[in-house]
């Protein structure tokens, strides 16, 4: 049959494909009302190009909250088709492997798709993106950023009317498209209903002969040119005997009075449902309730029927159900609404209860078990599965889905008094708030858990509260929470290891190196007991930091190298990066700037390998300081500006305060003393306010040195004596010895001048 009314759209897609073949990928959004033929356009293109492309697709269905569900299916199909690059990405998306962060997941998926497209152009289509989960939408946006330098044609379809705000917030697809538009990442195709002339052509193509004008007018008036509605209406008219296309004279014999009584699409669908046999009606009701999760085996358990598959085939033949790659779906979106409206509440509740039990016994997705249990008022089953779904989503960095599931878990568990589920759900909620930067809500949520649970979850909540307080430079409060975590940890050595490590870092920051080393050694002991290479390696680095700050340079270097070797063996690249960064600090403070820069560059490489922007920014800032000391101002500014931009984004106050010292050094080297003085003094003031004595000592030391170089000896001595007092207080013996030497030099200079 001729492809009517879509030639211009098809030609646009062909032009895009020509560019994609040459390595210039493209992203297209195709939109229009339901049933207008958006996906048919994609299928037509795929059929034309079947010898030149690999075509994979996914159709989103309403109320499917499985994070990344569409991309999981796409990658599975590619793997089945022979692409060996999809496995790592699939393991991340399914939660089989734990990624370091969401960026690693997204980058791995984009990289996998690009590699799969190297041999043949990859046509990826997502239908009904208005029903996609938030995580799939965000991943689609990320992949679209990588498409332009690939052989990928990425297509998404949606219905504009379905993009209404959700819970008072803009639809996630609208938000994503707005962000993508700002980067010029996509083009659009608007598929509109047929015109009256196109409707006439379509009817003729379906029926095999020209229809009478009044008939065309009646059909167009009833369907507004929607191709799916037209097709449904003609099928109904044939069934009713109003038209008989097998009769060559049908157009002359048609009773136009009957044509004027053409029913609406909804009426047509209702009649189709009424004509179903009881077993067919039972099965289609189950499909309406279960959506993408429907399966023959579950249906047989729920309905107590045999040969459900044959019943489904009958429904497909009657054009009520479609077979998709991912399962079954109702042929028309209106069908679901009609079926659910006509079902009694008692019937829906009874079926949902049976579905929940059947899915649970079959080890089904916790979200779908929870969803049906919730509809059946099975609060205990619902809450338990909602929290499992939340934990699963959180592990995949699918924070929006995790948030939704955790809130539902709290709601349902409170109805049945499942306090243990409430606590588990609130731990997830707190972690999500923390990850999104909403620290006040995270503190409130974790505090609720810490106040009522004296077991493992209470220990975890206390640990997380300690982390937040430490990140806010609230050292005393952090110490209280970490101590509580240790006391509640019991048989959970990984919590005890983290809490002891936190206490070590606090005392290190406060300058009590004896206590810092005590807690750090306890962290190492507990990390070994827990078998946790990340905490163990990180604690080894912490110990090296303490050795360095107490003047034990060689012992510090040796400990850093041990940590690097251990962490490299276990593939913990972000901590390898931290070890190299801190080793660079040792070399920098002993004046070996070339070695320091070498270490910082190794840190940057490993931070990128481990997808850790924070450590990368630290290394960039430290390398910038070295370049400033070496007189390479251009490099210093480049590195420092990059680091500062990151720390400003995350609001890392004490790092930004320390960086003011580096900018003071840069301006000093440039001969702009007024600006240099402002930066030094700003750094010292902010670090003092934050209570970070060690870093304040460093800033005072650098300021004193700059004053010495300018010949302001009295002021230099005053500042250096303050630095010496700080270093002595925090037991930074090496730094104290350097300052003492510089003060003696000042005194000697003064004696020489007097004599």
How would you describe this protein?
This protein has 755 residues and is mostly helical. The chain folds into six domains: 184 residues, P-loop containing nucleotide triphosphate hydrolases (Rossmann fold); 68 residues; 68 residues, Orthogonal Bundle (Arc Repressor Mutant, subunit A), CATH 1.10.10.10; 78 residues, no CATH class; 80 residues, Serine Threonine Protein Phosphatase 5, Tetratricopeptide repeat (Alpha Horseshoe); 98 residues, Serine Threonine Protein Phosphatase 5, Tetratricopeptide repeat. It has 38 helices and seven strands. The strands form two sheets. A five-stranded parallel β-sheet has the order 2-3-4-1-5, with helices on both faces. It is elongated and about 125 Å long.
Sum this structure up briefly.
The protein is built from 38 helices and 7 strands.
Helix amount: over 70%
The description of the largest β-sheet is: 5 strands, parallel
Give the name of the CATH superfamily of the largest domain: P-loop containing nucleotide triphosphate hydrolases
Q: What does the oligomeric state look like here?
A: single chain
CATH class of the largest domain: Alpha Beta
Unreliable stretches covering 5 or more consecutive residues: none
Q: Give me the CATH fold name of the largest domain.
A: Rossmann fold
Please give the structural blueprint.
Layout: H1 7-21, E1 26-31, H2 38-48, E2 53-59, H3 69-80, H4 87-94, H5 102-116, E3 121-127, H6 134-146, E4 152-158, H7 172-182, E5 187-190, H8 196-207, H9 213-223, H10 227-240, H11 250-253, H12 256-259, H13 265-274, H14 278-290, H15 296-303, H16 308-317, E6 321-324, E7 327-330, H17 333-342, H18 345-361, H19 366-375, H20 379-395, H21 399-416, H22 419-435, H23 439-452, H24 456-471, H25 475-489, H26 493-510, H27 513-530, H28 533-549, H29 553-569, H30 573-589, H31 593-609, H32 613-630, H33 633-650, H34 653-669, H35 673-690, H36 693-710, H37 713-729, H38 733-754
Parallel strand pairs: 1-4, 1-5, 2-3, 3-4
Antiparallel strand pairs: 6-7
């Amino acid at each position: 049959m001729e492809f009517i009314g879509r030639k211009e759209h098809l030609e646009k897609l062909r032009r895009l494909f020509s560019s994609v073949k040459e390595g210039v990928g493209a992203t297209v959004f195709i939109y229009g009302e339901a049933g207008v033929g958006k996906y048919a356009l994609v299928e037509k293109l795929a059929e034309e190009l079947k010898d030149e492309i690999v075509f994979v697709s996914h159709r989103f269905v309403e109320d499917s909250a499985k994070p990344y569900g569409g991309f999981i299916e796409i990658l599975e199909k590619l793997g089945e088709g022979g692409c060996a690059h999809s496995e790592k990405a699939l393991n991340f998306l399914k939660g089989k492997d734990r990624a370091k962060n969401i960026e690693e997941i997204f980058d791995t998926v984009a990289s996998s798709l690009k590699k799969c497209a190297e041999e043949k152009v990859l046509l990826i289509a997502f239908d009904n993106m208005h029903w996609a989960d938030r995580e799939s939408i965000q991943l689609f946006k990320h992949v679209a950023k990588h498409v332009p330098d690939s052989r990928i044609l990425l297509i998404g379809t949606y219905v504009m009317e379905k993009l209404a705000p959700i819970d008072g917030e803009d639809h996630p697809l609208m938000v994503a498209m707005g962000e993508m538009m700002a980067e010029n990442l996509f083009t659009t195709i608007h598929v509109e209903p047929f015109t009256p002339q196109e409707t006439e052509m379509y009817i003729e193509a379906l029926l095999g002969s020209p229809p009478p004008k009044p008939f065309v007018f009646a059909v167009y008036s009833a369907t507004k040119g929607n191709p799916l509605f037209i097709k449904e209406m003609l099928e109904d008219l044939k069934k009713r005997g109003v038209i008989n296309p097998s009769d060559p004279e049908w157009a002359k014999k048609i009773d136009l009075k009957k044509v004027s009584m053409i029913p609406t699409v909804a009426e047509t669908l209702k009649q189709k449902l009424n004509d179903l046999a009881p077993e067919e009606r039972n099965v289609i009701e189950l499909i309406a309730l279960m959506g993408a999760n429907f399966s023959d085996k579950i249906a047989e358990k729920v309905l107590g029927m045999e040969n459900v598959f044959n019943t489904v085939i009958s429904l497909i033949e009657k054009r009520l159900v479609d077979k998709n790659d991912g399962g079954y779906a109702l042929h028309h979106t209106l069908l679901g609404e009609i079926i659910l409206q006509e079902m009694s509440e008692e019937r829906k509740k009874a079926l949902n209860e049976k579905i929940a039990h059947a899915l649970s016994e079959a080890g089904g997705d916790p979200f779908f078990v929870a969803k049906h249990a919730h509809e059946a008022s099975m609060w205990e089953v619902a809450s338990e599965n909602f929290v499992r779904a939340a934990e699963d989503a959180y592990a995949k960095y699918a924070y929006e889905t995790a948030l939704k599931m955790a809130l539902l878990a709290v709601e349902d568990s409170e109805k049945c008094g499942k306090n243990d589920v409430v606590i588990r759900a609130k731990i997830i909620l707190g972690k999500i708030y923390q990850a999104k930067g909403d620290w006040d809500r995270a503190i409130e949520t974790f505090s609720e858990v810490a106040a009522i649970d004296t077991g493992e979850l209470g220990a975890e909540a206390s640990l997380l509260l300690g982390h937040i307080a430490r990140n806010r430079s609230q050292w005393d409060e952090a110490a209280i929470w970490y101590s509580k975590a240790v006391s509640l940890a019991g048989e959970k050595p990984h919590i005890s290891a983290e809490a002891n490590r936190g206490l070590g870092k606090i005392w290190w920051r406060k300058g009590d190196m004896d206590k810092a080393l005590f807690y750090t050694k306890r962290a190492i002991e507990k990390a070994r007991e827990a078998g946790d290479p990340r905490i163990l390696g990180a604690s080894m680095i912490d110990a090296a930091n303490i050795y360095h700050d107490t003047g034990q340079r060689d012992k510090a270097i040796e400990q850093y190298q041990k940590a690097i070797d251990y962490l490299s063996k276990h593939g913990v690249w972000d901590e390898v990066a931290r070890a190299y960064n801190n080793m660079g600090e040792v070399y920098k403070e002993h004046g070996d700037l070339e070695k320091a820069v070498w270490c910082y560059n190794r840190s940057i490489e490993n931070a990128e390998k481990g997808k850790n922007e924070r450590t990368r920014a630290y290394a960039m800032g430290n390398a910038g300081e070295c370049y400033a000391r070496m007189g390479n101002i251009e490099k210093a500014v480049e590195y420092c500006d990059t680091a500062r931009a990151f720390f400003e984004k995350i609001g890392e106050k004490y790092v930004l305060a320390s960086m003011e010292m580096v900018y003071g050094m840069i301006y000093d080297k440039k001969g702009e003393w007024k600006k240099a003085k402002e930066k030094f003094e700003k750094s010292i003031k902010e670090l003092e306010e934050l209570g970070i004595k060690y870093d304040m000592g460093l800033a005072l030391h650098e300021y004193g040195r700059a004053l010495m170089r300018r010949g302001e000896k009295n002021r230099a001595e005053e500042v250096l004596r303050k630095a010496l007092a700080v270093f002595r207080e925090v037991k930074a013996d090496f730094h104290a010895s350097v300052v003492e030497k510089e003060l003696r030099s000042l005194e000697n200079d003064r004696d020489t001048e007097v004599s």
